[in-house]
Design goal:
With about 170 residues, the chain is of the alpha+beta class. The protein is built from four helices and ten strands; from the N terminus they run E-H-E-E-E-E-H-E-H-H-E-E-E-E. The longest helix has 9 residues.
Length: about 170
């Protein structure tokens, strides 16, 4: 695992990274590491800091990890890992070791678990959490995403460090 640090301001298009490529939100609970595929989120500047924003439903195993851990990593993988991303988005970490099933490895970097196969890794620190709620939706058609009333919790994470895979890796 060979990465080089880059400025968060040099990152590629966040709309593509999150919405098209997808990301893995990775956290640890004691000795257990779990990664969840996410395709909803954004990156930008808030409170004069580079931030990433992610959304996790309360029934997801990763929700508990994100609640208890102050730091997570966000990993972005090449298209060849689409199958692994699908596994991490459809299987629960409560029932299996998703990373093993997906053929991915987690290593520690800056005290946070990261996905070794990633082309881009963001090390993030939790700054803010807030729950989406029905009354906040101006466009009520968006409520069709919440037929069970299981509104996402929003996490705003400061991007502490950004790493890209070293060339030739």
């Amino acid at each position: 695992m060979s990465f080089k640090e880059v400025s968060p301001y040099e990152l590629e298009n966040a709309l593509k990274l999150i919405g098209k490529d997808w990301m893995l939100i990775t956290a640890r609970d004691g000795e257990r590491t779990n990664a969840m595929t996410a395709s909803w989120g954004c990156m930008g500047v808030l409170w004069n800091r580079p931030v990433a924003v992610g959304f996790i439903r309360p029934q997801r195993y990763t929700f508990g990890l994100a609640e208890t851990e102050d730091r997570v990593s966000l990993a972005f993988l090449d298209e060849q890992y689409r199958g692994a991303l699908n596994i991490c988005g459809t299987k629960s970490g409560r029932d299996c070791d998703k990373l093993m099933l997906a053929g991915l490895c987690a290593k520690e970097m800056d005290g946070v678990p990261v996905i070794s196969e990633a082309r881009l890794v963001l090390i993030c620190k939790k700054l803010y959490v807030g729950d989406l709620c029905e009354s906040g939706f101006i466009d009520k058609s968006l409520l069709s995403n919440y037929k069970n009333g299981d509104y996402h919790r929003m996490y705003v994470w400061e991007i502490e460090r950004a790493y890209t895979k070293n060339d030739g890796e």
